[in-house]
Amino acid sequence: MSFTEPVFLLFLPSVVALYWLLPRRFRRPMLLAASLLFYAWHDVRLLALIACTIAVSFLCAIAVEDAETQKGKRCAVGFAAAVCLGLLFVFKYLDFAVGSIVSVGRLLGAEVSFDGADLLLPMGISFYVFQTMSYVFDVSRGSIRAERNMIRYALFVTFFPQLVAGPIERPADLMPQLEQPEPLTRRAVSDAARLLLRGYAKKLLIADHLAIAVDRVYADPAAFDGSALALATILFSVQIYCDFSGYSDIARGCARLMGIRLQENFRRPYAATSVRDFWRRWHISLSSWLSDYLYIPLGGSRVGTARTCLNILITFLVSGLWHGASWTYVLWGGLHGIYLIVERLLCKEKAPGRAVTFALVCFAWIFFRSTSVSDAFLVIGRIFSAWSFEAALSGTELLTAALLIAVLPLLERLPRLQSVPTAARNGTVLAYFFVFLAMIACRFLVLSQHGDTAFLYFQF
Amino acid sequence: MTLIFLQYPIVPSCFVLCAILVVLSVRRKARGLAVAVCAGAACIGMVLSALICAVPLSELLMLLLALALLGCALAPKEDAP
After folding, report:
1. For the complex shown, is ipTM > 0.95?
2. CB-CB: which of B47, B58, B77 is closest to A445?
3. Which phi-psi region, left, alpha or beta, contains residue A67 (left: φ > 0; alpha: ψ -120 to 50)?
4. Nearest-Cα residue of chain A relative to residue B47
5. Is residue A167 reached through a cis peptide bond, with omega within 30 degrees of 0 on the bond before it?
6. A434, B68: Cβ pair inside 8 Å?
7. Alpha carbons A111 and A115: distance in angstroms, whole number
8. Residue A281 near residue A291 (C-beta atoms within 8 A)
9. How far is residue B48's CA from residue B35's CA, in Å, rounded to a whole number?
């Protein structure tokens, strides 16, 4: 099930009502059943995979805690990592890995062919595998105790607001909240309403509308000149931010209705003054996961300069690969790694500034958005060649895109109604009302011109 | 750029009326709520008249976005973190 499907508008209020009406001891099992239903809505077969990941990580964490020797602990952690990451590899990267080997073989003159295994890509597998791994690693480090109740642990992994596209919650943050949620107060409802409206507006109003123009240009980049491709890339930078941060806002809003606070995943990333600053603001849950479980164990910045640079590059290549099984994502991650290395070596005194950071991030988005590496280089080549200023967008589309981009920062700063003095509430209520009407108009427009749109991060 | 809604005076009239009422509802301390309700009614009037006159959805969206921008700009803001 997706947050944008009409059935979710029935699902969420029903789950929230049941959650607060049921006696305390039935709440967790009910929430687990609802989360499994949410996940199975797309394809029932996906349940087998997530159940396997949950069972293996649950049992391995207990084995880690009960092991009397370091070797026993290491074996249990290794087994959990092999199974969970192995499933991720088979379902997400097998085609990519074998396809790449076959391509290299062809380049060397070998007569080989590979059509792809075409396995089903389970929704959100990268998210829940990372979440289960963080649990096993934290238990092995001794920072949390292994959970002995299967239902509690399964709920931590499958909690539906964050299951499909994060935030990647840490067990130390989420598990105690599932145990003891905050009561449903007026403030919580007001917070949740603001997060939900903001999230839906970002997704249905801004991201989906910008996707029409971006998809049109990127579907056939050879047909457009540099100005159109540059504009589409800038629009894509806004689209992906609104799409993903919109999802995170909706997830946080849903969780807030159940007395749970999910972590903030985005903090105005395009206001970053350096690429390093950008990664402190963009997909914070993934950045901190990679930092805690990959970059720091590799030695982080406590080692020599060359080794630190290598650690940064490895971390960002993994980040790129995590996003998708394609060389375009690897190049995107690698490019960010190079940015950070250059920044570390050359910009010690002064940050590059907002405009330069935004330009660098947009340049990297070209690889992220392009369907192939050759397309990405075609886009770059055309952007840096002569511009003929052919109109890729009509006047109305251009004006609407400008309005959408102008509304975004203001929308993000709209407060919840309860925090506004009564005398000043009219403006806030009207602003929310107009955004709501615009969202409905945009939904009909997008459905008529473009068809239904999924969240971009579902594919990861 | 040809804007079809300009051919139907009721649509831009409702838009301007709504924009003025939004500004008034934020600025006025007394009867601000009543003015805000009128602004909402003017906006709904604009949407209905646009739909009846078969104004394209893209233009209606543009008008609503302009009002949303005005509303968001005039509303109180949360401090940036």
Report:
1. no
2. B58
3. beta
4. A437
5. yes
6. yes
7. 14
8. no
9. 20
